[in-house]
Amino acid sequence: MEKNDKKVIRSWAFFDWANSAYNLVITSTIFPAYYTIITRTEEFGDQVTFFGRTFTNTALSNYTLSVAYLLMVILLPILSSMADYRGNKKLFMKFFTYMGGLACIGLYFFELKTLEFGIICFALAAMGYVGGVMFNNSYLPEIATPEHQDRVSAKGFAYGYVGSVLLQLICFLFVMKPDWFGITDASFPPRLSFLLVGLWWICFAQIPFRKLPAGSPNFKRINKRVINSGFAELGKVWTQLKHMPFLKVYLIAFFFYSMGVQTIMLAAAGFGEKTLQLGTENLIIVILIIQLVAILGAIIMSKFAKKIGNINVLIVVVVIWIVTCGCAYFVTTATQYYGLAAIVGLIMGGIQSLSRSTYSKSLPTDTPDNASFFSFYDITEKMAIVIGLFSFAFIEEMTGSMRNSIIALASFFIIGLVFLLMLKGVERKLIGKTID
């Protein structure tokens, strides 16, 4: 396949357009607000019973995501190995897309009396999102040459932000103005939003499904040895990384600052609703601010990376994240939360886009199929999410306050910053060896 083809790149970017609606509506705005409201009762407060065990409501949702990501950490090595062996990674993209989309549709039936069903659908939607993203990411070095990958990666995130905001605005109308549509059941607008997310996700994913290649032309029959080789493939990648000092240190830095970034993305809405009691309407406005500013952030960071280098930009962004966590601990008003949302939006799009393209550009050029390398990348990120979310939920349950969980996030960013600074030294050594 010819690289830098505009039509293929545009189609690839539409996968972000399709699945980012899940990230915005389900993990960031309407679902967290709806979930927090329906699971808070006069009789039991914010305590819920899930299959006979009692949890703090927001801790349960964070634990659920943590378990979902942990399951994907276990599954992805096997699946990426199968995709490499059979050359059919697009088939896996489709499977996870349909699983995630149908799970979102299932959330239409989520009420307090169907808590267990809703939580299971919530977990399956997360797994569908994670699996689809991993296989989509692995296409980046196949469709773009290294010098264009920052721009293409940023384009994907920009498409994702625009697409998700468009659907969010549609859902916003149902939530804010139900009387315009003759809706009298207060639970219907959010549940309808979950249904629309599933349909949006599945329908727009057909665009990349039509254009992207199936994978490397090495279709072979799967056997037990191939399935078991998934973790062996990861071991092989790790062995290769030992001889790639830049990538090894970069992944360690990425692991720690991702604990903070991804946990904030997934837990921010719960914090706004539960701690600040912003209400669904204000929460949607906040997240829309983040999404709109994030489009600009992804583009700006890409341009700065060309001038001062990816690692320098990442260092600056992580420092801003540390300061933001410190400010979030003391936030008490909606206005302060709005201000932080604007800052988070600006740096969120940039750090995600640059992280993906920095890794992609650093991969060995003689690798025929990058699914295993991107599986390693995604597993690193997902393990960061597992630890980050679990820490956030555990600290909240132990201390009774989400504010204390923010301190843990700040510490993750600080460790990530240390390794990014170490990476500068690795860069200088590699440049010195090249000159010699």
Uncertain segments are none
What would CATH call the homologous superfamily? MFS general substrate transporter like domains
How many individual helices? 16
Let me know the number of strands.
Answer: 2
Give the overall shape, derived from the CA principal axes: globular
Provide the structure class: mainly alpha
Radius of gyration based on Cα positions = 21 Å
**Distance between the ends:** 36 Å
- Give helix and strand order, one letter per element, not per position: HHEEHHHHHHHHHHHHHH
Number of structural domains: 1
Short description:
The protein has helices at 6-28, 30-38, 57-86, 89-106, 115-137, 140-143, 146-176, 188-204, 206-211, 224-241, 245-274, 279-308, 310-329, 334-362, 371-399, 402-435, and strands at 47-50, 53-56. The protein is an all-alpha fold and 436 residues long. It is globular and about 60 Å long.
Would you mind describing this structure in some detail?
Strand 1 (47-50) and strand 2 (53-56) form a beta hairpin. The protein starts with 5 loop residues before the first helix and ends with a helix. It is built from 16 helices and two strands. A two-stranded antiparallel ribbon has the order 1-2. Helix 5 runs antiparallel to helix 15 and helix 10 crosses helix 15. The protein is globular. With 436 residues, it is an all-alpha fold. The mean pLDDT is 84. Helix content is 81%, strand content 2%. It has one domain: Growth Hormone, Chain: A (Up-down Bundle), CATH 1.20.1250.20.
Which key terms come to mind for this protein?
single chain; mainly alpha; Growth Hormone, Chain: A; two-stranded antiparallel sheet; 2% strand
